[in-house]
Amino acid sequence: MKNPERRLNVISSAPPASVSVTVPARLHLGFLDLNGGLGRKFGSIGLAISGLRTQVTITRAAQTRVEGPDADRAQRHLDAMRDRLSLDTGHHAKVNEAIPVHAGLGSGTQLALGVAWGVRALHKLRQNPEEDAVLLGRGARSGIGAGVFYVGGLAVDGGRGEQTKMPPIVGRAFFPEHWRIVVVLDPKRQGVHGADEIDAFSRLAPMAAADAAHLCRLVLMKALPAVAEADLISFGSAITELQARLGDYFAPAQGGERFSSPDVAAVLRHLETQGACGIGQSSWGPTGFAFSESETQANQLAALARQHPNGRGLDIRICAGLNRGVEITAQE
User: Fold this and answer.
1) What angle do CA 220, 222, 225 make, to 5 degrees?
2) Cis check: omega of the bond before 225, within 30 degrees of 0
3) Parallel, antiparallel, or unpaired: how do β-strands 327-331 and 5-7 relate?
4) 116/194 Cα distance (integer angstroms)
């Protein structure tokens, strides 16, 4: 067969002609410790999801050229990987699909690691996502994007200490496959990012130690056991409380509100009255989310969201937790 496609875990003597890397988006469900009194700060919980993804195809070329959405960032990552790996060739990269930028879905980390993974696979070099994440400037506060990149699922990272290069993943869980998430995007807005994000964190006072301790307890003693036992009510209760407390903490950087998008906030408040649980905002938003027990319930909730007066300009999707990470195919 001409130009067969294969998975890159199949041993082959010849390097592939091209590789395509597909990486899922992630929801950042919240930080654990914004106090830092124990010597580590941040820590977070998050989840890989279906339905939103970045896909990049990379081939060798005389000069580096990138096309598609988020091409400028992809080119910077290609150039950095070429220099780091001392490669003597350029690359042509096509970003076929991209996670919405600055929407709270991990677009930057997933694009960076997807490009790095693809370059290493194209040249048959050992994968090192942790090293590449540091090289490409990812994981400044949260390790969730890098943590779910390879295997997906639900993950908890242990935050940053003085010597931390990348926040370590300290817990993982298989996410119940029948649960669904109504993901609510606001295409008109972007979350806080870049220099504004750095400034926002610098202006926020440390969280009270007792509040940080309670968030850690919510995750360890409620959210994680609930996932292990497929108890959506307990999981949703833990995430809703976690998000409410974090929303209040971050409100001064979001115009005094728990959500950065008023429309997303209004829709999610309505869904909560209709049986949704685990209500919150992913990272700085504007993307929000609500969890449901099944595909049927999620369809009903999504229909209500689209009919809501504030939902008409929003992008409302039904996603699942994804218990797998990066996927890569090679063209001979």
Assistant:
1) 80
2) no
3) antiparallel
4) 21
Around 207, how many Cα atoms within 13 Å sit in the side-chain half-sphere?
Answer: 26
Burial, 187: exposed, middle or buried (Cβ in 10 Å; 0-12, 13-18, 19+)? exposed
- The overall pTM is greater than 0.70: yes
In angstroms, how far apart are the furthest CA atoms of the chain?
64
Q: What is the 3-state secondary structure (H, E, C) of the chain?
A: CCCCEEECCCCCCCCCCEEEEEEEEEEEEEEEECCCCCCCEEEEEEEEEEEEEEEEEEEEECCCEEECCCHHHHHHHHHHHHHHHCCCCEEEEEEEECCCCCCCCCHHHHHHHHHHHHHHHHCCCCCCHHHHHHHCCCCCCCCHHHHHHCCCCEEEECCECCCCCCCCEEEEECCCCCCEEEEEECCCCCCCCHHHHHHHHHHCCCCCHHHHHHHHHHHHHHHHHHHHCCCHHHHHHHHHHHHHHHHHHHHHHCCCCCCCCHHHHHHHHHHHHCCCEEEEECCCCCCEEEEECCHHHHHHHHHHHHHCHHHCCCEEEEECECCCCCEEEEEC
The closest alpha carbon to 139, from 116, 163, 115, 159, belongs to: 159
Closest C-alpha to 84, from 116, 48, 106: 116
The 10 Å Cβ neighbour count of residue 205 is: 9
- Tokens at 49, concatenated: 């999801």
Identify the bridge partners of residue 93 per DSSP, sorted by sequence position: 58, 66
At CA 329, angle to CA 321 and CA 67, rounded to 5? 90
Query: What type of residue sits at position 278?
Result: G
State the amino acid at position 322 in one-letter form.
L
257, 265 in Cβ contact below 8 A?
Answer: yes
Mean pLDDT of successive 10-residue segments in the chain (332 residues)?
43 79 98 97 98 97 93 95 94 97 96 97 94 92 93 97 94 97 97 92 96 98 98 98 98 95 98 97 97 98 98 97 96 84
First to last CA, the chain: 10
CA dist., res. 303 & res. 301, Å (int): 5
